[in-house]
């Protein structure tokens, strides 16, 4: 009997050892690190006299025209623009093929930053628009008028197809221009951009040269005057510069880019939500307090239970600093926010989280690290079909260049990673399926370098990992 006992203990030990070996295999056996070889050259900012920065001709002509969603449902649009010579009119004139011309009035603001004084920044919200309708609009009334158009989203509902573009950390280099061009010419045809933060990179220039905010506004106008970009604040929006006497964070960003935060009962423009077609989009701020008792924490705690998946099956979260990132850049910067909110994301079955910040591309499997507490030692992310896929898309092309240094070996949770500039699209087909594709700038416009069929976590919570199949 004693002998039997020993051999069964040996057998148990073998099982334990095997178990450790197997779990190590899971830990170390990562997904794909792309072998794509790009030209390694520094990203270079486009010079001030570039075509993309041209000031529109005419006295007091509106420039830097941009739009974003103006309410929670997509029936309002915030139109913003800058005039230089004088304030001029805050009126937006707009119409569709089915409606007469209407006017909406907004407000004008300016700000100073060190020795820079902004132009006249106008924000006008137009409301009560019809869904799924093309509207034309005119700004610059009384001086030089400029006309643009946009298409409102379809009415919010569970099976409404819709295609989002994804861009992050764009900046204004030649590579940024390639990223934007690829997005525009992608046959997948994004209808609105989910922008995951870091817009102009003005702050990395001497005195945070705010002229770079103006050039960025002119550069991106060709897209954002025609379709809404949903904004997320990144670290390059903070513009905290006590050495210049600038101690109010986010000053240029909040003056230039308005978001409809009050419509989702948020108390600050850095965290808010919008519904668009079949998606519920929650924008979070990596650079505003998110700990227990803070405004953002209280808001998110009330916000997640509000999401009605029968109305909006797709739950998408945007933030700047990624929680899961296996590059040697900004490593673990997202960790404290992950500790605060990851259990909520799993509980409420977030479909996908998009982040930027790391200037490269990475997509994870559905994983979570919610079992971990500071005493149990269970600190390895595990496969979790209730967890989101985490995508880092900070590869817009800014001056700081690519993040090429990766942790080795590739962690098991990392499904695909590559240090190339690019953008992505998230193409919702219906309540169960969405097609996601990442595009690198070196390829043709229609080529997806990484792709995945997303199965909705609420309606079709079937394993959609790309390695298990
Ligand atoms: C930016 O891209 C556009 C569209 O491809 C092109 O017309 C323009 O010349 C480019 N500008 C620069 C400075 O690269
Ligand atoms: C702001 O100050 C810097 C030097 O500190 C100078 O180079 C720049 O021309 C000034 N800009 C304006 C608008 O005065
Ligand atoms: C959720 O949305 C569905 C579809 O629009 C609606 O019928 C239902 O009443 C909503 N549920 C709640 C709790 O609001
Ligand atoms: C990559 O990052 C690691 C960790 O920060 C560092 O030790 C290593 O020297 C870096 N390698 C290169 C080639 O920069
Ligand atoms: C949802 O879209 C997917 C992908 O296009 C398709 O295969 C599936 O049949 C669609 N479901 C329904 C109910 O139409
Ligand atoms: Fe960043």
Automatic annotation (TrEMBL):
Signal peptide: none annotated. It catalyses: a phosphate monoester + H2O = an alcohol + phosphate. Its cofactor is Zn(2+); Fe cation. Residues 387-446 form the Purple acid phosphatase C-terminal domain. It comes from Prunus dulcis (Almond). One of its GO terms (molecular function) is acid phosphatase activity. CDD domains: MPP_PAPs (cd00839). Keywords: Glycoprotein, Hydrolase, Iron, Metal-binding, Signal, Zinc. Residues 163-361 form the Calcineurin-like phosphoesterase domain. Residues 62-150 form the Purple acid phosphatase N-terminal domain. This is Purple acid phosphatase. Belongs to the metallophosphoesterase superfamily. Purple acid phosphatase family.
């Amino acid at each position: 009997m004693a002998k039997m006992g020993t051999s069964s203990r040996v057998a148990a030990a073998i099982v334990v050892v095997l178990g450790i070996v197997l779990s190590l295999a899971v830990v170390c056996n990562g997904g794909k690190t792309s072998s794509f070889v790009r030209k390694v050259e520094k990203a270079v900012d486009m010079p001030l006299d570039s075509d993309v920065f041209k000031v529109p001709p005419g006295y007091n002509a509106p420039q830097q025209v941009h739009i974003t969603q103006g309410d929670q449902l997509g029936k309002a649009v915030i139109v913003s623009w800058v005039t230089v010579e004088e304030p001029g009119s805050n009126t937006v004139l707009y119409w569709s093929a089915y409606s007469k011309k209407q006017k909406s009035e907004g407000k004008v603001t300016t700000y100073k930053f060190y020795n820079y004084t902004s132009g006249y920044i106008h924000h006008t919200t137009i409301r009560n628009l019809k869904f799924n309708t093309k509207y034309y609009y005119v700004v610059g009334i009384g001086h030089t008028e400029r006309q643009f158009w946009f298409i409102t989203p379809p009415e919010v509902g569970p099976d409404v197809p819709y295609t989002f573009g994804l861009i992050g950390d764009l900046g204004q280099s030649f590579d940024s221009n390639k990223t934007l061009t690829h997005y525009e010419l992608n046959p997948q045809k994004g209808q609105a951009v989910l922008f995951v933060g870091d817009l102009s990179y003005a702050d990395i220039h001497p005195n945070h040269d705010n002229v770079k905010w103006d050039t960025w506004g002119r550069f991106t106008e060709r897209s954002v005057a025609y379709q809404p970009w949903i904004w997320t604040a990144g670290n390059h929006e903070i513009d905290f510069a006590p050495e210049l006497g600038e101690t109010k964070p986010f000053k240029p960003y909040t003056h230039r880019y308005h978001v409809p935060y009050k419509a989702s009962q948020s108390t600050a423009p850095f965290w808010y939500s919008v519904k668009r077609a079949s998606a519920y989009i929650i924008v979070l701020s990596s650079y505003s307090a998110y700990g227990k008792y803070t405004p953002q924490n209280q808001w998110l705690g009330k916000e997640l239970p509000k999401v009605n998946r029968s109305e909006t099956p797709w739950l998408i979260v945007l933030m700047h600093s990624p929680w899961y990132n296996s590059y040697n850049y900004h490593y673990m910067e997202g960790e404290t926010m992950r500790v605060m909110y990851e259990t909520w994301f799993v509980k409420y079955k977030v479909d996908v989280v998009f982040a930027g910040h790391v200037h490269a591309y990475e997509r994870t499997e559905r994983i979570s690290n919610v079992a971990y507490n500071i005493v149990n030692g269970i600190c390895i992310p595990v496969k979790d079909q209730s967890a989101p896929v985490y995508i880092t898309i900070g590869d817009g092309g800014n001056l700081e260049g690519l993040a090429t240094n990766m942790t080795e070996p590739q962690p098991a949770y990392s499904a695909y990673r590559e240090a190339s500039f690019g953008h992505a699209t998230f193409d919702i087909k219906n309540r169960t399926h969405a097609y996601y594709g990442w595009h690198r700038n070196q390829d043709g416009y229609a080529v997806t370098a990484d792709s995945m069929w997303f199965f909705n976590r609420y309606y079709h919570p079937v394993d959609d990992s790309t390695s298990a199949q």
